[in-house]
Amino acid sequence: MLNNQSITEMTLQDLESLIDRIVDQKINQINVAKNNMEKNIFASLTTDAAISLHEEILKDFHPLVQSNGIFKDDPLFDDFVEEMAKNRRELDAEMAAYESSLEEN
After folding, report:
1. 3-state secondary structure of 49
2. At what angle do helices 47-59 and 12-44 cross, to 10 degrees?
3. Rg (Cα) of the chain, in Å, rounded?
4. 63 and 31, same structural domain?
5. Which of 9-13, 74-78, 89-93 has the lowest mean pLDDT?
6. Are 48 and 39 in contact (CB under 8 A)?
7. pLDDT at res. 14
8. Are 54 and 78 members of one domain?
């Protein structure tokens, strides 16, 4: 497509290409402006406030962050974690014994 070509002289393919290019440019401009805005917001915040804001933003996008802290008031959670650690130590010991038996043979 020539720069001085009038829209009435363009083919449908030329028009589609022009529209795609304009849309891509606008999306890039919006993304750049959004990133600059976020940088300015985070730069003006204290570290704690920036971390809190970042966590709030992540809650909308990452499913694991949405469940962050759900066990903080659960009295059984510490016991659960200790049982898992105990189970892991037992499995590690079993695996070490198995590997030793393989080395002996």
Report:
1. helix
2. 140
3. 29
4. yes
5. 9-13
6. no
7. 83
8. no
Q: Is the pTM of this model over 0.70?
A: no
Considering the domain boundaries, does residue 4 fall inside one?
no
pLDDT in tens, 31-59: 888 777 777 776 666 777 777 777 777 76
**Contact call for residues 7 and 15 (beta carbons, < 8 A):** yes
What's the rounded Cα separation, in Å, for the pair 93 and 87?
A: 10
For residue 32, the tally of other CB atoms under 10 A from its CB is 10
pLDDT number for residue 105: 72
- Within the chain, what is the greatest distance between any pair of CA atoms? 84
Question: 1 lies in a domain?
Answer: no
Q: Are residues 64 and 89 both part of a single domain?
A: no
Range of the domain at 105: 71-105
User: Is residue 1 predicted with pLDDT exceeding 60?
Assistant: no
Two structure tokens written together for 59: 């809650």
Contact 42, 50 (CB under 8 A): yes
Number of compact structural domains in the chain: 2
